[in-house]
Amino acid sequence: MSINRRDVLLQFALAASGSVAARLVQAGALDGDELRRPVARSALSTSQRDMVAALADLIIPDTDTPGAGKAGVPAFIDHIVTTWYSPAERAIFITGLADLDADCTKRFGRGFGACSDAQRTVALSASEAVSIAFRNAEKNPAMGIQGEPDAKSPFFHKLKELTVLGYYTSEVGSTTELNYNHVPGRFDGDVDFEAIGGRQWSS
Amino acid sequence: MSATTDFDAVVIGSGITGGFAAKELTEKGLTVLVLERGKPLRHRTDYTTEHLPTWRMPDRNLPNRELYAKDYYIQRQARGFDYTTLNFWNNDRENPYVQAPDQPFNWFRGGIVGGRSILWGRQCYRWSDLDFGANRRDGHGNDWPIRYADLKNWYSYVERIIGVSGHAENLAQLPDGEFLPPMAFTAVEKAFKSRVESRFPGRRVTIGRVANLTVPLGDRLACHYCGPCQRGCSAGAYFSSQSCTLPAADKTGRLTLRPHSVVERLEYDRATRRIGAVHVIDAVTRQRLRFTSRVVFLCASTFASQHILLNSTSRDFPDGLANSSGTLGRYVMDHQMGAGAIGAMPGFEDKYYYGNRPNGFLVPRFRNLDGVDSDATFQRGYTIQGFSSVDSWTSTWDKTPGFGAEFKRKMRHPGSWMLGAIGFGEVLPYADNRVLLDTQRDRFGIPQLRFEIRYRDNERLMLADIAQQAKALLEAGGATSIVSLKTSLTPGTSIHEFGGARMGSNPRDSVLNAHNQAHDVPNLFVTDGSCMASTSSVNPSLTFMALTARACDFAVGQLKEHRI
Fold first, then answer.
1. How many distinct helices (H) and strands (E) make up chain B?
2. What ipTM score was computed for the predicted complex, to two decimals?
3. CA distance, residue B58 to nearest chain A CA (Å)
4. CA angle (B153 as vertex; B171, B25 as ends), nearest 5
5. Most C-beta atoms within 10 A of its C-beta, which of A4, A155, A166, B480?
6. B246-256 pLDDT, tens digit each
7. Residue-by-residue DSSP string for B331-354
8. Which tens digits make up the pLDDT trace of B273-323?
9. B38-76 per-position pLDDT tens digit
């Protein structure tokens, strides 16, 4: 490990809430990637995590291929919301979960967790309408997906963005739902879409 | 060759030109020390993100906001910068430079052995006499001391070594080279080419000429079309110092490569009127070292080389080494690339592609070919580089409303074919577009380099023309929903850097002669982009390499004749 690498890792470790990670780094016990932040306590409660898992599968369900849940998307969303999001983005996301839950109660007399899939779909569609109106009113919104995301975008947009990103970059999503071939071996710029299997390349 | 110096030659820099100089000089029998400021990067072994799937990347390759803001606030804007190439770029916090007020400049630098040869775009084009004669024709800058005929055989020599795939077009403004088989067009590009060429008989659409092998060359394998070359290529399918020139130099047994070696200054020996020694600070240990050689090849990259010369002051050269002309650091240029157009290409909904072609298409210069076109308000010219691509899930998700099984089914299909065309425009040489030493110092105590570079009227007028013509090309090519782009990009963004120690016949207005040898210091050769007296409108690296090979041949001849 180079000096630079150790410094960077150490700084991240020290910035983390617990000092366990920092001690591990100093002891040379952590050989993690310098870009991976130390695992922190989830910003989501157990019920919020359950809600995220249900929502991810509502957006990308099991079909003839596995859906978001089986691709590990809920854990990815938890990780990004907890460790990568800014406090403002995290607040939009967590408030959005609470608002969706409250909206379910208002519409159906029960919280999101007790609603049927049909009821959840109605509530989530209402949330999407708010998101689309917001995005349409924005001038030059950030494009997201591995670039800087639109920090101000509403809950639904963030939820869908993280679900899509988490799913289509996962091993399951890349290799079963889309087409993955990291060493094509040749180039042909004029092939029929159906001839390569009727699924777009994952990257 | 010499028992009185540490090495026959010191080469400063291990990138495109430094690597080439190392190969040429060692193969001609010289012992060579290559000094590289950056850290080691071993071929194959250190390409740790090559073929790495996104699911193995931290945060799925989302930008590391804190790290990028703290350490890569300039480099993060470079093409190809992300987790997969992070360790190849310079750390901005550790390597600061000064930007004049209201004159931002993006200095994108490699921080590794091989330099930007690992990260480059690999486009390779010969210059023509339209380019070498430009300064003389319109009076901007000084006349080039060479013409195409001086470089023609050296272009061939370099192309055979590095491997350039492309298609011969027989155009005066873009001479053909020694090409490996060209890469294929997409269905969209084939249609675009035929429509554009029939609508504009003087214009040509050709596949990019690129230093990626389409057939094996020596022990380097042909491209396997994985896509992101900049992560490094274990197959050696694209040209880099690691895949080609450094191994060749190493094979001679005469190469010594020293990473972490920051060149502080060149010591001038007034008795011999030669460089007496190269002063180095070890970036890790901070140890100070001094190396002697019979000849020095300065190949540190355009601005880094000027930085070293400006910091090499002496009683004889108080304003920088080899600067009796006073032009050192002046007439610096880049390519402006803020204008173009993008549009959708309907009619290809069933078409797709197999493999990731690391290359696009090129529309060779078609403006001001014989002086200035009657409808043009600007001087010089530009080349259009373009691409066709299919919108992928990364962008279509946000345009596909809804969620659930139907959303998932739609996302299985790609979006529309898009066609983009971006101009690379000449920037004129101006005396007061310059770099100089600042009063602030870096971590080694070396004065930081200060950039004072801005675009002027000719650049602005050309930019408007590029936007207009790119739109016209896309319209002729059958694109719809065309969006014209005209943005004032920060100079430096193209990473095509030129000038500052320009070549010329007259020692009073240039730093280097026709062989890249300093007028003032016979054992100093500068062969990177700083030697350039103008920019042409095509990518410069091939010309840098041809000039380097030519200068090495000349220098060794001079050494043998004991002239230096």
1. 12, 22
2. 0.94
3. 5
4. 140
5. A166
6. 999 999 999 99
7. EEEE-B--EEEEEE-TT-TTEEEE
8. 999 999 999 999 999 999 999 999 999 999 999 999 999 999 999 999 999
9. 999 999 999 999 999 999 999 999 999 999 999 999 999
Contact A184/B356, CB-based, under 8 Å? Answer: yes
Q: Measure the CA–CA gap between B206 and B543, rounded to whole angstroms.
A: 20
The answer to whether residues B85 and B119 touch, using CB atoms and an 8 Å cutoff, is yes
Mean of the pLDDT values across residues B20-41?
98
How many helices (H) and strands (E) would you count in chain A?
8, 1
Question: Do the Cβ atoms of A44 and A82 come closer than 8 Å?
Answer: yes
Q: Which of B223, B224, B352 sits opposite A196 (nearest CB)?
A: B352
Please report, rounded to a whole number, the percentage of residues in chain A having pLDDT higher than 90.
75
Q: Please provide the size of chain A in residues.
A: 203
Residue ranges in chain A whose pLDDT is less than 50: 1-39
Domain map (residue ranges) of chain B: 164-238+336-425+455-490
3-state DSSP assignment of residue A86: coil
Chain B 226-255, residues with CB within 8 Å of chain A CB atoms: 226-227
Which tokens in the block code for residue B186? 């997409």
- Distance CA(B380)–CA(A187), nearest Å, equals 36
Residue A22 CB partners (closer than 8 Å, separation 6+): A10, A13, A14, A16
Whole-number Å distance between alpha carbons of A63 and A70: 11
What angle (nearest 5°) sits at the alpha carbon of residue B112, between those of residues B78 and B232? 70
Place of tokens 């600061």: B96
Q: Which two tokens stand for residue B192?
A: 């675009």
Contact check, Cβ <8 Å, A33/B58:
yes
- DSSP, res B123: B
Smallest CA–CA distance from A185 into chain B, residue:
B224
User: What is the residue-wise DSSP string for B473-534?
Assistant: HHHHTT-EEEEEEE--PPTTTT--EEEES-B-S-TTT-SB-TTSBBSS-TTEEE-SGGG-S-
SS3 content of chain B, % helix, strand, coil (to 5): 25, 25, 50
Q: Which residue of A has its CA nearest to B397?
A: A164
3-state secondary structure B259-317: CCEEEEEEEEECCCCEEEEEEEEECCCCCEEEECEEEEEECCCHHHHHHHHHCCCCCCC
Would you call B39 and A200 a contact, using CB atoms and an 8 Å cutoff? no
Nearest CA in chain A to B222: A185
- In this structure, what is the dihedral angle of CA atoms B61, B67, B72, B74, given to the nearest 10 degrees? 90
Check residue B14 and report its DSSP letter.
Answer: -
